[in-house]
């Protein structure tokens, strides 16, 4: 009983603390919104426009991201080429790529002084479009979410057993018929989940809208909250908008879950590399076209960030104390946030896996839901509530550092839980009987079983939490000042003042810090095969180590 209590207590405490913080923040919002009638949202033309535009840009971004993702994922599932693994790793990194780095790269290619503008200038023609406004928002969202959607759909296609491909070849299914009967049923199961995820990411987007919005006509609910609090100091308007956004996000999640079904398990062997048992010249051209399109979308902006950062002001900017102070603040916040997020995530999952093994599914689902409820509470909404809550008792800006750490940790927590939930459950299911028979618990089990088996997913969770916190602009945009800046805020201010060379250096530094750390963790894990073996059998690895 004591062991069971000690297993679940940290998780219950962590989940309770999160729930208390969110409820307190919402209560603070409601107390400020009492003087504002919620129905005024539809009576105020500006707020009505903001709501409609939020849905419009999210819908268009989702459509433009999902439609090309289907043929791209299908092409990648059928083709093996040099650099394919690198491309897929790059797709995975878009989830943790700092948004402002992506924005800077897109400006370097599609901006008024970008590469395309220079090419049009050679023929004395102006750039036929502006990257600011809806055009830029859609472009940035497609750049960030198309690779993510492609990666998720590709995972579904890779789950099709090889026997189905062989059977399709035997039956003479090619081209459209093979896609219709083999690939599409698998994609159709995954589509609601991908659509919901991409729509939610676009609907709650903040840094993209803030950087490329281009005025009142291109403002979303999230940006309207920021403007109400930061510039107008209209607490009631900010509160009602925050609550309105939370209600919309919760409705979107429930609507998505209504149509989302778990992927069915198909019997048969899974191929480790793409196999195309029926092929033709036209299929090769079709697949090559879509792969080339995604390469042209993703690669040039990232190369532009690197090229623009290596400018004549590189060493001058690297000697700026303000830059390194921002870097120091970012690293401190990211390290603390990822540590808190990973610790809370492990505590919650220890409790949930204990209840799952005890067949108490309701408790397990409930505590994991509390840990991931931040997904429907965008960082700016949470920051708004904390701001209103703390201002009653203390100087908010004096505690800005810890507020930003807390918000970033909470925003990273759902990703930590998603990364660790299945590995931790599988370890418990596999080794619990043996540990009980050996009387192994506490630190000995942690050292010999848990750490050896979970070192890789824990490192991935830490890396994801670190990079997400490093590139976040949501909380710091509300609490930042001249005396307290992070690297994303520093970069945003340089972009806002059109100091493009200095901004290029900051963007390059942020890119190297983010992707460099993420790649370093992956490389360190991949280059250690003994670690992978220990993941399969930690007891065997322990014996070998003692010999």
From TrEMBL:
Family under the similarity heading: Belongs to the binding-protein-dependent transport system permease family.
Keyword Flavoprotein: no
Recorded GO MF terms: transmembrane transporter activity
Protein name: Thiamine transport system permease protein ThiP
Entry keyword set: Cell inner membrane, Cell membrane, Membrane, Repeat, Transmembrane, Transmembrane helix, Transport
Residue stretches spanning the membrane: 12-30, 50-74, 86-109, 129-148, 194-215, 235-255, 289-310, 330-350, 370-390, 396-417, 461-482, 502-526
UniProt subunit comment: The complex is composed of two ATP-binding proteins (ThiQ), two transmembrane proteins (ThiP) and a solute-binding protein (ThiB).
Any single Gene Ontology cellular-component annotation: plasma membrane
InterPro entries in UniProt: MetI-like, MetI-like_sf, ThiP_ABC_transpt
Ranges of residues in domain ABC transmembrane type-1: 51-254, 327-521
Gene Ontology terms: biological process: thiamine transport
Membrane topology note: Multi-pass membrane protein
Subcellular location: Cell inner membrane; Cell membrane
